[in-house]
């Protein structure tokens, strides 16, 4: 703004809101005005919720999930099959797979992928934690659910090598046509994977 | 989420973030994870900024602007020409006009437009406050800068009528072709207004 038209506290709120993914400078102003209009229903509760999350949030020392308890809700859930571990890149992938709601398994969050060009090596990811969990015994299957990108696949190969001698089954997500996807828009790699992995009707 | 995968504090944060305009349920999860990753740079400061805004924000009793002081930054700015009042529907319009940075005037926020169908009458808008400001004297011009919608124009007519006998100049924003606009995409109303208000080159 060319000249100050409102208090520094509100301008600071707008500046910080603009850093939230999904909001830019213009939508941050709109969001700030909406929050102020809904002061008691939204601004106050959201501020408190952020403060509470700030105080309580921790990363699970066991699997890398984000929670307010450590070990996290998933690791302490005894209705889950803790002998199956789904390995993901990021917490958002864990949450996405849980929304699918198919598996009742444990998780392990790597915190990224191997990327030598960006200086990300095995020690920068939570791979040692995964090997420790498997070495402790009781694990039957590792499902590697990293992204189907070059970095993801490199990471998957590396983990498979490291786990090879630990006597645990290692699987990966199936490649194929996304549900609702149109063949015409899919790349050759996906189509050839889907053809090779065709199933009987 | 089908099953709980994280603490209730974090789920509450996601639920509240989803109510912020510009964010939906999916982007609220993404935003929450980003905030948690940038705990000290973003989550903490944003929570504090919201708390501070919640405690300090007020609506200016003079013009209706949102600020942390009352009268607001605009009303107390003695470098502004307080004899010209720009009448807007909403605080966001005040901020938008200030970004244009053309006028160095005072403002008056109506808080909406007349809309009999929605039960919004003159008493629901801050029209009396405007008439009081003009009646107190010292005001030379009222620029009516409401939206160019049916409701906005109805409101403009009503205000013009109410101010008619107070001996103050009343103007409105020019209609015309938006800067950067293509004629082919403009409606007939805008084009005919732009033709009628043509200016010498």
Automatic annotation (TrEMBL), chains A, B:
One GO MF term attached to the UniProt entry: DNA binding
Name of a matching Pfam family: RecR_ZnF
Entry annotated with the keyword Acyltransferase: no
GO biological process: DNA recombination; DNA repair
Keyword Zinc: yes
ZnF start-end (C4-type): 60-75
Keywords carried by this UniProt record: DNA damage, DNA recombination, DNA repair, Metal-binding, Zinc, Zinc-finger
InterPro entries per the UniProt record, alphabetical: DNA_Rcmb_RecR (IPR000093), Rcmb_RecR (IPR023627), Rcmb_RecR_Znf (IPR015967), TOPRIM_dom (IPR006171), TOPRIM_RecR (IPR034137)
Residue ranges annotated for the Toprim domain, each copy included: 83-178
Family per similarity comment: Belongs to the RecR family.
Protein name: Recombination protein RecR
Organism ancestry: Bacteria, Pseudomonadati, Pseudomonadota, Alphaproteobacteria, Hyphomicrobiales
Gene: recR
């Amino acid at each position: 703004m060319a000249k100050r038209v409102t208090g520094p506290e509100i301008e600071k709120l707008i500046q910080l809101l603009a850093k939230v993914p999904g909001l830019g400078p213009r939508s941050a102003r709109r969001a700030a005005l909406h929050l102020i209009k809904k002061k008691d229903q939204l601004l106050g509760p959201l501020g408190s919720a952020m403060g509470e999350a700030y105080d309580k949030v921790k990363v699970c020392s066991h699997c890398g999930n984000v929670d307010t308890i450590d070990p996290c809700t998933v690791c302490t859930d005894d209705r889950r099959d803790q002998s199956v571990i789904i390995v993901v890149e990021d917490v958002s992938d864990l949450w996405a797979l849980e929304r699918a709601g198919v598996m009742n398994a444990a998780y392990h969050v790597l915190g990224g992928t191997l990327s030598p060009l960006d200086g990300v090596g095995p020690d920068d990811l939570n791979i040692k934690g995964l090997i420790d969990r498997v070495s402790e015994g009781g694990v039957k299957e590792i499902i590697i659910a990293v992204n189907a990108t070059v970095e993801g696949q490199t990471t998957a190969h590396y983990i498979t090598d490291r786990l090879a001698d630990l006597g645990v089954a290692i699987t990966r997500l199936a490649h194929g046509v996304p549900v609702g996807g149109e063949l015409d828009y899919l790349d050759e790699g996906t189509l050839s994977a889907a053809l090779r992995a065709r199933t009987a009707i």
